[in-house]
Amino acid sequence: MAERSEELVDGVLRKATSEVGLDVEYVRAEGNTLFARGRDGSEVPVSDYLGGFGALLLGHNHPDLVAGLVDRLRRGAPVLTQLSLAPQANEVVDTLNRVLRREFGVDEPYFGVFANSGAEGVEVAVKHAELDRALRAAELLAEVDANADAALAAPGAEVDASALGLPAGTPVAEVVALLRERNAATLADPPRLVALEGGFHGKLMGSGQLTHNPDYRLPFTPLGARALFAPADADGLRAVLEGARATVHDLRVTADRIEVVPRDAPVFCALLLEPVQGEGGIVPLPAEFAKRVQELSAEFGCPVVVDEIQSGAGRTGAFFAASQLGLLGDYVVLSKSLGGGLAKLSVTLVRASRYRAEFEMLHSSTFGKDGLSTSVAAAVLDLLEADGGALYRVVAERGERLGAALRAVRDDHPDVIADVRGLGLLRGVEFADLSTSGSALAADLQAQGRFGFLASGYLLHEHRVRLFPTGSAPSTLRLQPSVQVTDEEIDRLATGLRALCALLRDGDDAGLTAF
Ligand code: PMP
């Protein structure tokens, strides 16, 4: 029986992290720095490259955001006023529309739906897309019904029902009955949800089924709508869409002829993708593929949900990472950095031509669109958009500096580091197969998918750098510092990585765990 309260919260995880020295308590945070409680009780500054799993682009406790929050609380501004006017939420969505126009050159507005977390934002997009699909299916069936009524009212007409496999001379009533039965059966099939291999969209009952990692997905598959997974290449995606398409049958009715004609059935609910796969190992979507996605979406009638939860809100040097790929979604989901590291919220943007107002009654949450989180998001957008978007340029510059430092380490240690990737302040360092490296410990932990944690423990204790591996690619370290990251911090990270590579090469297992 666990006795101390900390064993009742993530006790197993804590034990695992303590084995590699990651069981640290952080007692203060400012900018890109976290202060750990040292063994003697002193504060030990640590450079935060994990950045709250990517939510801290503006750093910890940004003074303007803190001041705004404190001011609101002191003034007694309400936090929860459901179903009343929500000026901050409107301001957020207005600003997001201005940014969409600037970065994508679109005129069409996007509606905003607020929720509490990234995974919930994804589920909002998928639920909305499913409502839209069901309404489109009902509209299609109503058209077919009207044509069927017209056919039944034209008894003398010649009937061609070969598309249904019926012989010439089949009575119209029989054709209509079979057609209605087949259409109803086709549209009763579960919706097709398509996501990319390596993708991550959350861990809730629905979003967990869109996350490719089988460890997170398979134990819960019976609970949620299943997804089809496609590779990030146009031919591969086309093959998946092709394999999932379905037809319904309509009737073309003229005065003397009735013909059964196939039409695409609206079976595709959504295609989900991240412009830069985060948990999948910091993998930017190939530019060629991104260009083809919208084409395939139009061809198959499959709306695109761009998950910018990790990559969006300035992280890659533009507000939307997808704008750098020219990939405009029908839905765009934002969360993480939009909350400025102080608030938990998500906004799901829905293209106006797809928006179904019915949805407003169908999805809500007590805490969604609350006054605190929407006011923080409005302030975050002010900071990002200030001075003609100066901050995006700083992100791009810091990102280049970080990327160059990482590439230099890889060039010096190609046997240990397989790849460095990323965009802006979203970077990944992938370690090579270490089974033949000098380090038995690293080889063993890598085989168990735990090498990244060993590396993280070493870098934390020896170089005061906090980072973690990505959620689904355990040999890739993620680097998502705040925009305040300094040259000194980047150099210290590079020094730490170089030292780690040398220990791995030399098989110095004692050095890896000397803390
Ligand atoms: N989508 C992406 C791309 C993410 O990176 C994450 C979180 N890592 C999520 C969805 C889920 O967000 P949350 O953890 O807030 O539910």
UniProtKB/TrEMBL annotation:
Q: Which domain of life is it from?
A: Bacteria
| Signal peptide region | none
Care to name a GO molecular-function term for this sequence? transaminase activity
UniProt keywords, alphabetically: Aminotransferase, Pyridoxal phosphate, Transferase
Q: Which Gene3D superfamilies match?
A: Aspartate Aminotransferase, domain 1, Type I PLP-dependent aspartate aminotransferase-like (Major domain)
Q: Which cofactor does it need?
A: pyridoxal 5'-phosphate
Q: Which InterPro entries match?
A: Aminotrans_3, Class-III_PLP-dep_AT, PyrdxlP-dep_Trfase, PyrdxlP-dep_Trfase_major, PyrdxlP-dep_Trfase_small
Family, as annotated: Belongs to the class-III pyridoxal-phosphate-dependent aminotransferase family.
Name by which UniProt lists this protein: Aminotransferase class-III
Q: Which organism is it from?
A: Actinosynnema mirum (strain ATCC 29888 / DSM 43827 / JCM 3225 / NBRC 14064 / NCIMB 13271 / NRRL B-12336 / IMRU 3971 / 101)
